[in-house]
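So, does this match?
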Amino acid sequence: MRRSTAPRPHKRDGIWYLVRRVPKEFASFDRRGLVRISTGVAVADDPRGVRARDAVRSLGAELETYWRKLGDGQSAEAALRFEAARKRARSFGLAYRTNEELAAGPLDELIARMKLLLDRNAIDNAADVAAVMGGARRPALRLSGLLKEFEAIEQQNLLAMSPNQIKKWRNPKKRAIANLIGVIGDKEIARMTREDAVAFREWWQKRVVGGGLDIGTANKDIGHISKMLRVVDLTHQLKLEPVFHHLRLSGAVAAQRAAFSEQFVQEKILAEGALDGLNDEARHLVYLIADTGLRLSEAANLTAETIHLDQEIPHVQVRPNGRRLKTDHSARDIPLVGCALDAMKLHPNGFPRYRDKAASLSALVNKVLGKKKLLPTSEHSLYSLRHTFEDRLTAVEAPEKVTASLMGHKWIRPKYGAGPSLMQKHEWLQKIAFKPPKG
């Protein structure tokens, strides 16, 4: 069910629609002939069909998945048989191989498996023979099932993630697969060709050139698909061709690092009443980030256990605390000074409204900063306060090791000892502390 181009939206009664003819191979299952599905997007609200194209692509992927499921009525049962055989093979200490794979492999392995059945008196047990000798066929894995399979393989890596982190991990992969299915259909991954991958690359090229989309976004899609295929192939020894190898688009430009000037932060962002459009938690999180350089997610996920206001040097601790830190170097202790100290005194238990919701915090604050003309350029955002924090440390010539320790960056030399103390970090932070807003 290959499609050379992505489906296009069609106008009908003032609404954009997906219109697809049922493929011949599924006509006996779906007798509608022509399928029309509303995107829910009014033509008047989207005259050029920009939003409609994305909606149609998503609906098209879902429709093709539906057709495939109709055609593969027995696939669920076959998958269960295969999984049972694979688990039973593991109980014998073996990796599951189908009989075709065993026949194509070395004769010694085939003989060893037969001997294992004889040694365990399992030669008359049909389930054991099927598990050891590959009696259950490996079910065909389609693109629509790729993420689920990849997630099952990577489940140990998800254990340390919070629900929101898992969502952020999953969504770009989900979108990449939906985009690919929209271009080439819900193909079996073993039947994907270099031509399919090139077609996907060309589809992205047209969007980049014609739609002004970012090259980096295209390359992320290609990268996600390539990695998922590679991991699934390695795990199940499918011997897939690396069809996406060397297909990333060239010309990507690294995002420009933007930082506020120290004067702008003090006189504009921290001016009395400047952030009145924000709720207390969001406003005080801005103050906290300004004088600690914390990442948004680190600040939003502080709790009573990681906030220490009654210590000789008040400080906060960045710890996993139910979520995965960005890097191994992110865990650190940061003294509280200036605006940060004032903010934390008002929130000794943290910021429950934004716990595990850093994206919501960012969206709200950036919207308010934009409305109040507190973003000097399009490259500036709430996150720019972290860059400003680093620049201010550089301006007072703080030792690089102290700066790395405060930022949660890797130190260029091997780590020995405990690193800079709270006292040392406190001394440097006092040199750059902002004056808290009045009132």
Summary: Residues 102 and 108 are 10 Å apart (CA to CA). The chain has three domains: 75-133, 140-254, 262-432. The domain at 262-432 is CATH 1.10.443.10 (hpI Integrase; Chain A). The chain has a mean pLDDT of 89.
